[in-house]
Design brief:
The structure holds 2 protein chains of 2 kinds.
Chain A (H helix, E strand, L loop, with lengths): L17 H24 L18 H32 L1 H16 L2 H15 L4 H29 L3 H9 L4 H30 L1 H5 E4 L2 E4 L3 H10 L3 H30 L16 H8 L1 H20 L13 H31 L4 H37 L2 H15 L7 H10 L4 H4 L2 H4 L3 H13 L3 H9 L4 H35 L1 E4 L2 E4 L3 H11 L2 H34 L3
Antiparallel strand pairs in A: 1-2, 3-4
Helix pairs in contact in A: 1-3, 1-4, 1-13, 1-23, 2-3, 2-5, 2-10, 3-5, 3-23, 4-5, 4-23, 5-7, 7-10, 9-10, 10-11, 14-19, 14-21, 14-23, 15-19, 19-21, 21-22, 21-23, 22-23
Chain B lengths: L4 E11 L5 E12 L3 E6 L6 H8 L7 E6 L2 E2 L7 E4 L11 H11 L4 H14 L15 H13 L5 E5 L7 H16 L7 E6 L2 H7 L2 E6 L4 E7 L11 H24 L15 H12 L6 E3 H7 L4 H13 L3 E4 L2 E4 L1 H8 L2 H15 L1 H12 L4 E3 H9 L4 H18 L3 E3 L4 E3 L5
Parallel strand pairs in B: 3-8, 3-9, 6-7, 7-8
Antiparallel strand pairs in B: 1-2, 1-4, 4-5, 9-10, 11-13, 12-13, 14-16, 15-16
Helix pairs in contact in B: 2-3, 2-4, 3-4, 6-7, 8-11, 11-12, 12-13, 12-15, 14-15
Classes of the chains: A mainly alpha, B alpha/beta.
């Protein structure tokens, strides 16, 4: 299975198209609109503090359950988004011209930036009630999960083998049936992998999504994230360890009850028909499959799905053959009109917003800080690469070892940076270190593992004949790394590095602004800029920070990562 | 003059996951003299490739000695180069860079690396392709790069692991002829060649001696010198006679072995993955003229365009189920086999079911267990564990899958891969 990076790598053009600009304007406009609304709606949330959180470990099972449920709901919503948004983008050339650049911008937005501008809006949906906060929290988790899933699904839909589609047509499957019986199964294996990645992403931001404070508005929903936040505020190391334990248990349960069965189940949808020895297994799935009860329970659902397939008449038409040119032109026109109207609205909001705006020097300052964060991201990705690439190659060439390392790295990827705050603060205060340098490792804490994952995957695909050829000709030492090992994993490494780089920008907000008890330590950078603006409830600066970060991430992806990706694909991909 | 290579009593076993070990090679004696091409001929699973890896120093023997130029082989030796079945070219290196790699590993001066690489490329007929990447080349050209890469290090011994089997017939013949010409004219900087193959004609065409391997474990069962003069002609009666002789050797060995084991499959007999429809196809071909129920193996192999690797398992499975008999290089349908070939599909299934119950103890065993159990179901692992007492894990898995496929055809029992359960239910 090929794992693709969670950014658009489709077009090889360097320069942004008109659609990219429109997408950027749209996103910015809506953020501005949200921020404006938030300013008006802002009010302290009093009700939630009525039920105070407790650091007693006996409360953890309940908190863990609530967190797990929120994650699950967010995952379901993300799947719904994936199935609709990505499908629309893949099926309609009109829609995809806008939707894909839009998705590209959305994935570059800092997740924590989202919170600050949308949370007040969600709270206002049900004023004074806890429901709004719950929705806000699920929304944050959704933004940390949905984009890469949608990208993966879109890329799969675009590569469904034509003979499968044609077979479906010959049997008269209509669009709905084709979607569920051909396209979704085909897209399943990479989608399941991305769901696992998304879950890790959700955990990483669990503290920020459950314990939110924007200006005067603040709340803490009962859950593991808030528990950690409270433990940090109270400097309670014991509680931190309890939280790590609870998280480990929840992740393990998720793995056993959800992901392992999913992976084993998705395995049957692989397109290559070779039997392989290391078929993934899951006791849960086997149990389900052998239980009559489960079969009985799923039968009505199957029947219902089959009933829906028959709702539409079977279609035997050729694609595009029945498209009416007049209707098609009308559709084109109305689509253009809708997009233009939306963009006009966005531009108008941005204009109003900047009308009352910040001095130009503030923009320069934001870019300067963004530049600092960029240097940090690049240096840390380089350091992480230098460490994990050789280790990944070593592990990947030893399948048994890889079987042990993979799940551990997966857990570490889910490890929220907040849990290391005590270590970071203690080290920096005790040894009076420079926070601009020593806070930085927190940025790659969760993201470096994607480099390791991908390099391991790459090294394990190196065919035995190639390894034998190297040995037979006595290629060893540095020559072996230079001519065999590093080139072999390079395409995989690039995918991992793109994922890690995007994630590190996102993590900057958590990593550049750290506290332990009353002690607060900051590094200079765009992350701490956004976080400070959030704490102060300064929506102008929040929006500016988000926009600058999104712009920089998108530009770096376009001019650096995307060309590198295609270079690696062309030259180093094993056929 | 000493031999280039001297193997004595080489044995190789791999540990099995459930404990114990799987013997792949046993009691191998082999010498390679100067100026000699030796062929290792046998079916897949006979350990020929493992033996080649031992000679190349890629994998150590479990016991026995492997001596190359008076020194034991304890790692990749610089005078032994290998040509791989799948070419094993590095896709990110150009033709020239691929060829240079082995010289760079020798730490030669850059100028010498370049001249020698260019000379090898020239010798093997690749000039003009120096800057091409492997993916831009056809299969035949790629294998030429493989040869150039092996020759450029001026090895004493060239090891070839089924080097032509990934190529189409014409390209393979073209490359074989070129190679034999270079060898005959003494243009190759090598002193001896070991060729692993499962193609009998290829072995007779190229080798001075052919060693026949048996399977499970791999042993050398006979040595056939080939004294024909090069270049050899496939239409020469002496050539055909040699091909025929090797076929006879290989089939009688099998028949003997079957006889030793009491001529009956047991629960622990390995069953190759041969489908019922493949057996039907061969039975149909055999009953039709000109064979009328009996055929010469080399003849029917070339008629059906099957390699021995592909033909033998089919023939063996048919012998096991008493659909056919093998011996003296011939395959002959039994009376049941003739009826099987002549009947319609439903009757065929009935015949097949009867044969399974009588001659495939594993199928009969599974059916009995399913009959006896109240639920008429049993899990996959119940039988797999049982089989693993008799054979290696992979072989057990393959055997069980074969039985499932046969039983499905015979409608003897069914199997659901999702729940990994055998049952007596039919989906109907």
């Amino acid at each position: 299975m090929r794992i693709l990076p969670p950014v658009s790598i489709e077009a090889r053009r360097l320069l942004p198209s008109g659609w990219d600009v429109l997408a950027a304007l749209l996103v910015l406009g809506f953020i501005v609109a949200f921020a404006e609304a938030s300013k008006l709606l802002a009010q302290p949330l009093t009700l939630l503090t009525a039920q105070p959180l407790s650091l007693a470990p006996s409360h953890l099972p309940e908190y863990a359950l609530r967190t797990a449920l929120r994650m699950l709901i967010a995952m379901v919503v993300s799947l719904g988004f994936t199935f609709t948004y990505a499908t629309l983008a893949a099926k309609s050339a009109r829609a995809s011209a806008l939707l894909i650049p839009l998705l590209d911008i959305l994935q570059s937005l800092p997740i924590l930036g989202f919170i600050s501008v949308t949370v007040v809006f969600f709270l206002s949906l049900s004023p004074g009630k806890i429901l709004g906060a719950e929705i806000a929290c699920v929304f944050v988790l959704f933004t940390s999960q949905a984009w890469n899933m949608a990208f993966s699904f879109y890329q799969s839909l675009r590569t469904v083998p034509p003979e499968l589609i044609e077979a479906g047509r010959m049997f008269g499957l209509n669009g709905w049936a084709r979607f569920w019986r051909i396209e979704v199964p085909f897209a399943m294996p990479p989608l399941v992998w991305n769901m696992m990645m998304s879950m890790s992403g959700g955990w990483f931001f669990i503290v920020a999504s459950e314990a939110i404070s924007v200006g005067k508005t603040s709340f803490a929903l009962p859950g593991i994230g808030s528990y950690i936040a409270l433990a940090i505020a109270h400097k309670d190391l014991n509680a931190i360890f309890w939280a790590i334990g609870a998280m480990l248990v929840v992740i393990l349960i998720y793995d056993q009850l959800m992901f392992r069965p999913l992976v084993a189940w998705a395995y049957r949808f692989r397109i290559d028909q070779e039997q392989s020895d290391d078929e993934p297994e899951s006791w849960m799935l086997t149990m389900f499959r052998r239980t009559r009860l489960f079969n009985m329970a799923s039968a009505p659902f199957d029947a219902f799905m089959h009933w829906t397939y028959r709702l539409q008449p079977p279609s035997h038409g050729q694609s595009g053959a029945n498209a009416n040119p007049v209707v098609s032109r009308l559709a084109n026109l109305s689509w253009t009109f809708i997009v233009m109207a939306l963009v006009a609205f966005a531009v108008w909001r941005i204009y109003l917003f900047t009308g009352a705006a910040l001095p130009f020097s503030e923009v320069v300052k934001a870019f300067g800080l963004g530049f600092l964060t960029m240097i940090r991201v690049f240096v840390l990705i380089a350091v992480a690469s230098a460490i994990w690439t050789p280790i990944g190659i070593y592990v990947g060439l030893r399948p048994k070892l890889a079987g042990i390392v993979q799940p551990v790295a997966q857990f570490l990827a889910a490890f929220p940076a907040n849990l290391l705050f005590p270590v970071a603060v203690y080290a920096i205060v005790t040894y009076s270190l420079n926070p601009d340098i020593w806070l930085s490792p927190l940025m790659v804490l969760g993201t470096q593992w994607y480099i390791l994952f991908n390099v391991i995957a790459g090294a394990s695909t190196l065919p035995r004949e190639l390894r034998d050829a190297g040995t037979n000709f006595g290629v060893g030492g540095w020559l072996w790394w230079r001519k065999i090992a590093l080139p072999a994993v390079f395409p995989f490494y690039v995918t991992g590095a793109i994922t890690a780089s995007g994630g590190s920008w996102n993590a900057a907000i958590v990593a550049e602004w750290v506290n332990w008890g009353s002690r607060n330590i900051q590094a200079h950078g765009l992350g701490s800029y956004i976080q400070n603006a959030t704490v102060a409830g300064d929506f102008h600066r929040i929006v500016l920070g988000i926009a600058v970060m999104a712009l920089m991430v998108t530009v770096i992806n376009r001019i650096f990562w995307r060309p590198l990706y295609w270079y690696a694909e062309r030259k180093y991909r094993l056929a | 003059m000493n031999a280039l290579l001297d193997l004595h009593d080489v044995r190789r076993a791999f540990p099995k996951s459930g404990g114990g070990e799987l013997l792949v090679l046993d009691g191998i004696d082999l010498t390679l003299k100067q100026g000699e091409i030796v062929g290792l001929l046998g079916r897949s699973g006979s350990g020929k490739s493992t033996l080649l890896r031992i000679i190349a120093g890629l994998s150590p023997p479990s016991s026995g000695s492997a001596i190359y130029l008076d020194k034991p082989i304890d790692g990749p030796a610089s005078g032994i180069a290998m040509v791989f079945q799948g070419f094993a070219l590095f896709p990110w290196l150009t033709v020239l860079e691929n060829v240079q790699l082995g010289l760079e590993a020798l730490k030669l001066p850059p100028a010498e690396i370049r001249t020698r690489a260019l000379a090898a490329i020239d010798l093997i007929g690749l000039d003009g392709y120096e800057s091409a990447y492997p993916r831009e080349l056809s299969g035949g050209m790629r294998q030429r790069v493989g040869f150039a890469r092996a020759l450029v290090v001026h090895p004493n011994i060239l090891l070839m692991d089924e080097p032509f089997s990934a190529l189409d017939v014409l390209t393979a013949e073209n490359l074989r002829t070129d190679l034999l010409e270079l060898w005959a004219e003494g243009d190759l900087p090598i002193k001896g060649i070991i060729l692993v193959t499962h193609n009998i004609e290829e072995a007779v065409l190229m080798c001075d001696r052919v060693l026949l391997f048996s399977t499970n474990p791999g042993k050398i069962v006979s040595e056939i010198p080939i004294a024909l003069r090069q270049p050899r002609d496939r239409n020469d009666p002496a050539f055909s006679a040699l091909v025929e002789r090797i076929y006879v050797e290989m089939t009688t060995r099998r028949a003997d072995r079957a006889a030793q084991k009491g001529d009956r499959a047991t629960l622990g007999t390995f069953l190759p993955r041969v489908s019922a429809s493949t057996m039907s196809g061969l039975a149909e071909a055999l009953i039709a003229p000109p064979y009328n129920g009996k055929a010469d193996l080399p003849e029917i192999a070339s008629e059906l365009q099957l390699e021995i690797d592909e033909l033998f398992p089919i023939a063996e499975a048919m012998q096991l189920l008493r659909l056919a008999e093998i011996g003296d290089g011939d395959i002959k349908l039994t009376e049941t086999g003739k009826r099987f070939a002549a009947e319609e599909i439903d009757e065929r299934k009935r015949i097949f079911a009867r044969l399974l119950i009588r001659y495939a103890p594993l199928a009969a065993h599974i059916r009995r267990v399913l009959d006896e159990r109240e639920s008429h179901t049993a899990p996959w692992h119940r039988f797999l564990d049982e089989l693993e007492d008799h054979m290696a894990e992979d072989a057990a898995d393959e055997t069980l899958r074969t039985v499932v496929a046969w039983a499905r055809f015979a409608e003897l029992f069914s199997y659901d891969d999702d729940s990994q359960m055998f049952s007596l239910e039919n989906p109907s």
